[in-house]
Amino acid sequence: MSYSWNWGVFLSPTPSGSGTYLGWLLQGLEWTLLLSLGAWVIAFVLGSLLGVLRTVPNRWLAGLAAGYVEAFRNVPLLVQLFSWYFVLPELLPRGLGDAIKQSDPLIQQFIAALLCLGCFTAARVCEQVRAGLQSLPRGQKNAALAIGLTLPQAYRYVLLPLAMRIVLPPLTSEFLNVFKNSAVASTIGLIELSRQGQQLVDYTAQPYEAFIAVTLLYVLINVCVMFGMRWVERRARLPGHREGQ
Amino acid sequence: MSMIEIEQVSKWYGQFAVLTDCTTHVNKGEVVVVCGPSGSGKSTLIRCVNGLEPIQQGTILVNGMTLTDPKTNLSKLRSHVGMVFQNFELFPHLSVFDNLTIGQIKVLGRSKDEAAARGLKMLERVGLKAQAEKYPGALSGGQQQRVAIARALAMDPICMLFDEPTSALDPEMVTEVLDVMVELATEGMTMMCVTHEMGFARKVADRVIFMDHGRIVEDAAKDDFFGTPRSERAQLFLSKILHH
Ligand SMILES: Nc1ncnc2c1ncn2[C@@H]1O[C@H](COP(=O)(O)OP(=O)(O)OP(=O)(O)O)[C@@H](O)[C@H]1O
Ligand SMILES: [Mg+2]
Predict the structure, then answer these.
(1) Most buried among A121, B91, B121, B219, using CB within 10 Å?
(2) The pTM is what?
């Protein structure tokens, strides 16, 4: 039995007649990008905030952040996703829950996946940021406070900028993980890149081409993220010297 | 009039008493040197003076404001109290210029121009105007410490705290930092300095405090201290340190 390669498959029209299979893949890519980038924004902002809270002197706030991390790190991602998608609307007040259930299913899937990935990744970002903050020499915080900065200002202008530089490499890998993890959204019906690839296989019976194309697109995302983060890393490197202006 | 008043201050880390019943004061315009063996609580005491460490007993007043009073705005108070650390603690991600202006802008609410003018003036004062655009990592230890002093001065402090400002420096850089401190002292700045530089103490100190095991063992006018310290421990300490 021999496999007959057909790379032209991507340009052939889809059963609905409008557009090509390549168009399908690009649509999937679009959802994957939208979902992952959105989730990363949530994860970065929320994770940084939680990371800060884990290091503040206030025990309640620190405990709250620690609880968040335990909850979101230890429950499997798939369970979290089902909770956001199926369970949360049931827990909300009747009117709100019904409104959600009657909205466009695509929007429902997207929002649930977005919140799920964002909150899950936030727990991981939090731990990285906390580690970065804790690795700073104690004297920096004292110096920041000693010139009269308030604690929030000390974090904003001194501690976070330093900690973020230290944890940039692990944050890069968390960022990459978001793209990989975004494939779970297919389990609640969101047709993102991996699901779109599956669909291509079902319709065209050209599995190799489809999976190779999907893989290449994921690799492309990875490469772009790596280059982007390298650039950020270069810009953020602690300068030894800056030429006079 | 007292700028800094420390009254019966005690502090514990768990069971360990770092400070026990410390009482002393620094008058306006006075230079007080604090010395004593390693681990005697000198850094802790000086950090307590601007509220970087809480105390469990006693009171500290700075310029008439009680540190332990919950109504006291600690950040505001600290902005008037300059502090210089053993390890400089410049902010490494900010240029020298930004190190000097960030507090003025964010804390004192000065305009960028005002802050820049004041910052550059202080930088000139410590002889480093040419280094404004550099980052701390590109400076020598002595230069970094002088920038740190300039950073504190740019906030127009009413008094200055120094915690072993020269002990992390290579010997050849100690003088350049001490020179700046001597100049400050002769201009009438109120200073509390933890240091083992007895030459500095001889030159500009009004009083010398000797600490041991968290207690102020000796608190004497400079001449008395270097003449004949009353406590045996201080004598021993002095003889060790002066023979170096
Ligand atoms: N956070 C802390 N927790 C527990 N013990 C501490 C802490 N900080 C300091 N100590 C202890 O308190 C004592 C006094 O410390 P401190 O740094 O004030 O001494 P020092 O006189 O400045 O010494 P050095 O000359 O070495 O700087 C030391 O024995 C130290 O081990
Ligand atoms: Mg010390």
Answers:
(1) A121
(2) 0.91
The answer to which of A100-104, A142-146, A149-153 has the lowest mean pLDDT is A100-104
Mean pLDDT over residues B37-51, rounded?
95
Min Cα distance A68 → chain B (Å) is: 29
Average pLDDT over chain A, rounded to whole? 92
Given ligand 1 and candidates B12, B15, B43, which is best to mutate, with the most ligand atoms within 8 Å of its CB? B43
Q: Could you give all domains of chain A from N- to C-terminal order, each with its CATH number?
A: 16-236 (1.10.3720.10)
Q: Could B107 and A238 be called an inter-chain contact, meaning their C-beta atoms sit closer than 8 Å?
A: no
- The CA-atom distances, in angstroms, between A176 and each of A39, A110, A216, A226, B8 are 12, 19, 15, 8, 57
Q: Give the residue from chain B lying closest to A150, CA to CA.
A: B75
Dist. CA B92 → ligand 2 center (Å): 22
A191-245 pLDDT per residue, tens: 999 999 999 899 988 899 999 999 999 999 999 999 999 999 999 988 764 433 3
Tokens describing residue B94 = 């900010």
| Tokens coding A142 | 């004292």
Residues in A lying within 8 Å of B, measured between beta carbons: 137, 139-140, 142-150, 153, 157-158, 161-162, 165, 238-245
Burial class (CB in 10 A: 0-12, 13-18, 19+), A123: buried
Residues B25, B5: Cα–Cα separation, whole Å: 4
CB contact under 8 A, B134 and A242: yes
Of B91, B135, B155, the CB nearest to A158: B91
Phi, psi torsion values for B8, nearest 5 degrees: 45, 50
| Contact across the interface for A147 and B76, Cβ inside 8 Å | no
**Cβ-defined contact of A242 to B91 (cutoff 8 Å):** no
Q: Report pLDDT digits (tens) over B96-135.
A: 999 999 999 999 999 999 999 999 999 999 999 999 999 9
